[in-house]
Write a structure and sequence with these properties.
The complex is a heterodimer of chains A (95) and B (474). Chain A is mostly helical and 95 residues long. Chain A contains three helices and two strands. Chain B has a single domain, classed as Amidase signature (AS) domain (Amidase signature (AS) enzymes, Alpha-Beta Complex), CATH 3.90.1300. Helices cover 38% and strands 13% of the residues of chain B. Chain B has an eleven-stranded mixed sheet. In chain B, a hairpin with a 2-residue loop joins β10 and β11 (435-442). The chains are: A mainly alpha (95), B alpha/beta (474).
Chain lengths: 95, 474
């Protein structure tokens, strides 16, 4: 149901590396699960509206009031790498 | 004194502290030493000492908190290697509500990684053991919270339920677990799994404890736009009878193949007890319940795949050092996430991807509408729906890890209420082969007071004794 190429495409979308020795098992497990959940295709859902969320959450804006935010150094403290006032990451182009 | 403290329910401990018969220092020290000596792997962190004292109606009776709640300066790892050592800069509203009511933090409890699992075997910090039989799972994902309460390591605990993660471990461990109406408890500071389903609630030794705990948990929170004010105060239950109450049993579902004979026998005995208390038992149809399970295993992974995109090695947690940004992201996530979390991220990404969105996510959302309608139709003619909480008692460690789908089937009875956002409680209904069985009682949105009341009447009549697991000989 889902083959290696399709799995690699989905993993790419998910920004999740899969190593060569993980591909076959993962593809088989996902195929089993997708085969089961595909049972929802048996139902007649004509005219049924989707539910994304339960409950009425309209007009749930808070007051536009000034409040204190986390200090920069506190927000940065758990980061693996920082420089100055920001999170430090490797270059998108590589070294 | 130790056994005396241990034998007190949380409500009784609050009363004993108020009377002066017990001090808050004594109860904290008692449970701290119990949690410190944890042989169930229920705790991932235990407080060194009682936090700064806050006076409140909970009197100092300490609380164990599932690890996915952010607690300022205290490890909050959500059962994941990707958050190893993470100490958040703020505290979740649910936890601060309890602290403000006078319940200090005793420790953080183990869980399935990001709450994905029904056995607590998906934790990067090792599986939790069931206090009734240490070769068996406690259920999940709030397995550490359930085992801590059942094993007498904590007076009560905070958990979360996305598809059954409070109710199922409560059932397998012989404690009470309440999944609230969606939105009744703030999600602010809960490390998110599936935002449209996640609900925080109590795991307790009895129904009265659940009511007292829940009273101080609910409330609208300006930091969570989906939270709502509970329309009434939560009362301690006193009902002794069920006269005039109608309980609906989804017969076709409960008679299904996967339900163990011992679970069915306990369930039928509970129905008989309810009849004797004056309740009317009727049969109902939930024809889409099996499809609810399928829809859940599309919707929850879809939301998870989005929520878990934040774990990328940039702002917190693990980073796999690479010279290139994209490789840093992908290898960090490869190293940091466990197998079940990866499966769900991939399923969710697939279900949301171009070409599959309508067939999977779109249809699953429409099934969700159908499930909510079916529940509402039953509640139009009955007060509650009752089912076993789990089709089985606690299974052996490792029994289902090789087959993810068989694990998912643990959630058959708990998922419809999650999709509909309606409240449900699990209470112990007895033992099967020496292991606890849970009874689930579900009602319409905001019916928690009525659910607690019915659960209390049944609890008194059933007379379940969990003391063997929490370590006091009666």
């Amino acid at each position: 149901m889902i083959d290696r190429d399709e799995l690699l495409h989905v993993a790419r979308l998910a920004r999740l590396a899969l190593h060569e020795d993980e591909l076959d098992t993962t593809a088989a497990e996902l195929s089993t699960i997708l085969g089961h959940v595909a049972a929802i295709n048996e139902l007649d859902l004509d005219g049924v509206e989707p539910t994304a969320h339960i409950g009425d959450v309209s007009d749930s804006l808070r007051d536009d009031a000034v409040a204190t935010s986390l200090p920069v150094e506190v927000a940065l403290a758990p980061a693996p790498a920082v420089r100055d006032d920001g999170f430090l990451v490797p270059s998108p182009q590589g070294e | 004194m130790t056994d005396e403290i241990q034998s007190l329910s949380a409500v009784a401990a609050v009363a004993a502290i108020a009377d002066g018969g017990l001090s808050r220092e004594e109860i904290f020290a008692h449970y701290r030493s119990r949690a410190e000596a944890d042989e169930l792997n229920a705790f991932t962190w235990v407080a060194e000492q009682e936090p700064a004292r806050i006076e409140g109606p909970l009197g100092g009776v300490p609380v164990a908190v599932k690890d996915l709640f952010c607690t300022e300066g205290i490890p909050s790892q959500a059962g994941s290697k990707i958050l190893a050592g993470y100490r958040p800069p703020y505290t979740a509203t649910a936890v601060s509500n309890l602290e403000a009511a006078g319940a200090p933090l005793l420790g953080k409890t183990n869980q399935d990684e990001f709450a994905m699992g029904s056995s607590n075997e998906n934790s990067a910090y090792g599986p939790v053991l069931n206090p009734w039989d240490k070769t068996r799972v406690p259920g999940g994902s709030s397995g550490g919270s359930a085992a801590a309460v059942a094993g007498g390591l904590a007076p009560w605990a905070l958990g979360t339920d996305t598809g059954g993660s409070i109710r199922q471990p409560a059932s397998l461990c012989g404690v009470v677990g309440l999944k609230p109406t969606y939105g009744a408890v703030s999600r602010y500071g809960m490390i998110a799994f599936a935002s449209s389903l996640d609900s925080a609630g109590p795991l307790t030794r009895d129904v009265s404890d659940a009511a007292l705990f829940y009273r101080h948990l609910v409330g609208k929170d300006s930091a969570d736009a989906t939270s709502v004010a509970f329309p009434e105060s939560i009362e301690l239950p006193t009902a002794e009878r069920l006269d005039g109450i109608t309980l609906a049993v989804p017969t076709a579902l409960v008679d299904g193949d996967g339900v163990e004979p011992g679970v069915r026998a306990s369930f039928e005995a509970s129905l008989e007890t309810a009849r004797q208390l004056g309740a009317t038992i009727t049969s109902c149809e939930l024809p889409s319940a099996a499809h609810a399970l399928s829809a859940y295993y599309v919707i929850a992974p879809a939301e998870a795949s989005s929520n878990l995109s934040r774990f990328d090695g940039v702002r917190y947690g693990l980073r796999h050092e690479e010279s290139n940004l994209d490789a840093m992201y992908t290898e960090t996530r490869h190293d940091g996430f466990g197998d079940e979390v990866k499966r769900r991220i991939l399923i969710g990404t697939y279900a949301l991807s171009s070409g599959y969105y309508d067939a999977y996510y779109g249809r699953a959302q429409r099934v969700r509408t159908v499930v909510a309608r079916e529940l509402a139709a039953v509640f139009a003619g009955a007060d509650f729906i009752v089912t076993p909480t789990s089709p089985t008692v606690a299974f052996e460690l490792g029994a289902r890890t090789a087959d993810p789908l068989s694990m998912y089937l643990s959630d058959l009875f708990t998922i419809p209420m999650s999709l509909a956002g309606t409240p449900a409680i699990s209470i112990p209904s007895g033992l099967s082969e020496g292991l606890p069985v849970g009874l689930q009682i579900c009602g319409p949105a905001f019916s928690e007071n009525r659910i607690l009341s019915a659960a209390y009447a049944l609890e008194q009549a059933i007379g379940f004794d969990g003391s063997a697991a929490w370590g006091v000989e009666r």
